[in-house]
Amino acid sequence: MFKLRQRRWANVAAIYGFLLLFSIVFMGPFVFALLSSIKDNPTEWPPNLAVNQLMPKNWVASYRLARQGGGNGFTGGLAPNRQVYFEVSYWTGPNQEPVPPEVVIPRRVPGGAAAALKIEHYATDYVKVVDLRELHREPHDGGWLTTYGFTLVNTGSLRLDPVPMDLTVPMRQQFVSATLTPNRIERLGRTQGWNNVSAGVFPYVFYNYSRVFQENYSLSTGRQLFFLWMRNSFLLAIVRVLTTLLFGSMAGYALARLEFPGKDSIFALMLFSMMIPGQVTFISNYLVLRDGVFGLSRLFGVSSLLNTYSGLIISGLVSASSVFIMKQFFQRLPASLEESARIDGASSYTIFFRIMLPLAKPPLGALTILTFQSVWNEFFWPLVVITSPQDKYPLTLGLLTLRRTYGAAAFDWGPILAGTFISALPIVILFIVFQQYFVEGISFSGSKS
Asked: What's the whole-model pTM score?
């Protein structure tokens, strides 16, 4: 009995161990992408999972610096006539005299040229460095550990955000620690740089995420583009989900429960269309939209459906796979439901909307996830249909714009990873909400009455 119980627990442990390994393999890249989107240098090699933005000591330091500057501890800022106090420590060898760092408030512009046009005031024009002095010196590792302190003062009448800072020391004078961990160390360790010394907790931790929203804006309207891209993708996805659920369920019910001439041929043609790659029908679909669906759009005063949301929606109004899933589900339901309703005088529309459709929550939930994910991640077809302006782009084309802005020349992958991670969140949330219906709907779609 004891051996049987021991074997059972061993099997359970093996199953859970396999599931844990399986989750690590599949969730590992997702977690690594999240950590990389927060890091200052996501392309560092070898990769390092230690992220300065996730260290509690830096949260406390960024909160205190923002409070000293007269701003909110979580959102930051350096108010007029306010100041922040900063300390930094360096190690020097026994035969080298420690030299105070050169403190510079640079005229730094994150992002591309569009971000530079948006900046009206630079911190370097108003912030002064005062009272730079050596605080103490003590023996350390055969050399000297020297700590310096200084104060940054906003002498202007404007609230400043961000306040970047660079410290530079001679060669062989090694940086050890500071009030706030620097965002980068350059020039063989001589220069330590901070993106914003009074950022506050949230802008410090989610620096790349704030850049995605703040640095990308429309030159014509001045509106923030990332919000527009998300809104456009949500609009297209929601409309396509509604049309797919409505037309897919109606067509599936008709093919499963109604009798009419050519039903089997229509279903066979639909299955055949599912086997054709989209690249085969790409040119013909493009010509249909270019001509306004065989000229029918001219009845509404529109000569072409290219570069319009109507073209994207009409070209994907309903998919053959959605009709197939709904047909398989409706075939599984017992015929007695319809027979009893028809005895009571119900029409086909009444039976469908009041009896069949309420029972179809599992496949409808599965279709909601599949359709939303398909539209949300669709890239090639929107790239062909939507050309300009950037305000009309869905999120996938917006991420391509981020790639051109940050990755092509600047090699600044932080905002790109941040935007990519944001784009994945709606799919994850949607799957968590509808996962029960998703599993049930897929299982029902493969069954037959």
From this structure: 0.85
For 165, phi then psi, to 5°, come to -155, 140
Token couple for 113: 């040229």
- Name the residue with tokens 């370097």: 124
Q: Fill in the DSSP letter of residue 100.
A: P
Domains of the chain: 52-205 (no CATH), 225-445 (1.10.3720.10)
Task: Say what the pLDDT of residue 442 is.
Answer: 53
Continuous H helices in 258-360: 263-274, 278-290, 309-315, 320-332, 336-343, 348-351, 357-359
Residue 79 structure tokens: 């108010």
170-179 pLDDT per residue, tens: 999 999 999 9
Q: What is the DSSP string of 222-249?
A: --BHHHHHHHHHHHHHHHHHHHHHHHHH
Are 422 and 212 in contact by the 8 Å Cβ rule? The answer is yes
Classify residue 327 as exposed, middle or buried by CB count within 10 Å of its CB (0-12, 13-18, 19+).
buried
Unique residue bearing structure tokens 């989107």:
37
Dump pLDDT digits (tens) for 222-275: 788 999 999 999 999 999 999 999 999 999 999 998 888 999 899 999 989 888
Closest CA to 199 of 165, 155, 149, 156: 165
Helix (H, G, I), strand (E, B) or coil at 351: helix
Give the distance from CA 229 to its chain's centroid. Answer: 11
- The answer for residues whose C-beta is within 8 angstroms of residue 220's C-beta and 6 or more apart is 389, 391
| Sequence-separated (6 or more) residues with CB below 8 Å from residue 151 | 83, 84, 85, 86, 129, 130, 131
Please work out, in degrees rounded to the nearest 5, the angle formed at the alpha carbon of residue 417 by the alpha carbons of 414 and 421: 140
177-194: pLDDT as tens digits: 999 999 999 988 999 999
Cis peptide before 162 (omega within 30 of 0): yes
